Each structure stands twice: as C-alpha cells, then as structure tokens.
Amino acid sequence: MTQYQRTAAIFRTVFVSVKNRSMLGLFFICLLWKFKVYKSKFFGGMHTQTTILIAKPKTGDYAEYDSNARLIRIDREVITGEDGKTINPEAPIKGRMRFIFDALLHEMIHMYCVEALEVEKEIELYHGLTFQDECNRIAGILGLEIYEGYDEYEWFPLNIRPESFYMGASLEFSDKENKLVRQKPPPGSMIARLIKGTEKGDDDKI
Predict the structure, then answer these.
(1) Domain extents for the chain?
(2) Contacts for 57-66 with beta carbons within 8 Å, 24 or more apart?
C-alpha cells in the first residue's frame, strides 16, 4: 500500500469515526498539506511512508511520532479543545492551526532524525544532540532565535514563539509559562521584536 493509499484509508476512517466532522476534516486536510510543505521546506523533500492520523497518542502527549507504525498521531481532543488544557477552542481557527502545525513540525523533526539521518541510539530518538541540531537549523530557517542556554527542545518550536503568534489559542505556552519570555531576550533581538508584535510576515514563519 502506498503512502497516498494509506492516507486515503485513514482519511475515510477519521470522517466515519468523529462527531465534529467538518472541523476535524478541515484540520486533517490542512495537516496533510502542511506535511507536504514541511517535507520540501525543511527536510529536502524526503521520501517517507509516514503519514498523519488523528488519534490518541500512545505516549499521552498531544502529538507523537511512532517510528514502528510510521505514523504521526495528533490528539483529536487537542484539535477540538476538548482536553481543556492545551488549546482554547474559542480562539481564532488560524491561531489554533498555527499551534497544531508547530506540533506537527516537532514530530516531523523526529521523523527526519529516524528515517533520513538513521539515528538509532535510544536517547537520540527523543531530544538528543541530533534532534537539537535539527531544531537549531530549522529555527534559523524560520528566522527565530534560540537564546543562550536554551535547553527546552522537547517543546520546540512551541516555546520559542511569542504568545501572540497563536492568537490566544495556546493555553499551555502562555507568557507565564514560556521560559523564553521569562528569560527576557535582549532588546532589539528578533524574538524581542516578535514578542512586541512588531515583526511582520508571521505566516512566513510557519
């Protein structure tokens, strides 16, 4: 079965099994599109059998990359806001999509490390040095700065975005929780300008 056949089968399953079909369907289509865009933009157009499934991640997180099943799972309750702790369901859909897209990007970095860079060491499969190097590389492409001493790669890039980027959608990474904001980046740095909302072209950074 090809990747596209798997995707079509999963797509049909999602539409049959969920209650809020229209919204989840929209998110799912956008995720498939972003998956293709990100492969080209960040990962050299890599060939992969991995596809996306809207389902409860086995790890209990809101998203995960499963290297054995070749799946990226994204929690349906996070997309809808039903989990009550990650996404504000009343926020603009654009901001909610930005949050989900960043979660997808994080899992795609894991995918790239395993499938393209062939990382095998268990510690590297999570947030080891190879993963961190890829985060640094992608931050540069996005025009984001990782401040000195940053070690929270398990949340990249969600915790280096300014809160305003998600348009009120993120309940987990607020100014109060965001370690980057608490560190007060140097005045005039790109992150400082983003936090103040003076940087234009946000959609180029997703």
Answers:
(1) 3-205
(2) 62/86, 62/103, 63/103, 63/104, 63/106, 63/107, 64/107, 65/107, 65/108, 65/110, 65/111, 65/114
pTM of the model: 0.75
| Per-residue pLDDT tens digits of the chain, which is 206 residues long | 666 566 556 555 544 444 455 677 888 889 999 999 999 999 999 989 899 999 999 888 889 999 889 999 999 988 888 888 888 888 888 999 999 999 999 999 999 999 999 887 655 667 888 999 999 999 999 998 887 777 789 899 998 888 789 998 988 775 434 443 333 334 444 434 433 443 345 555 56
User: Structure tokens of 191?
Assistant: 């992150």
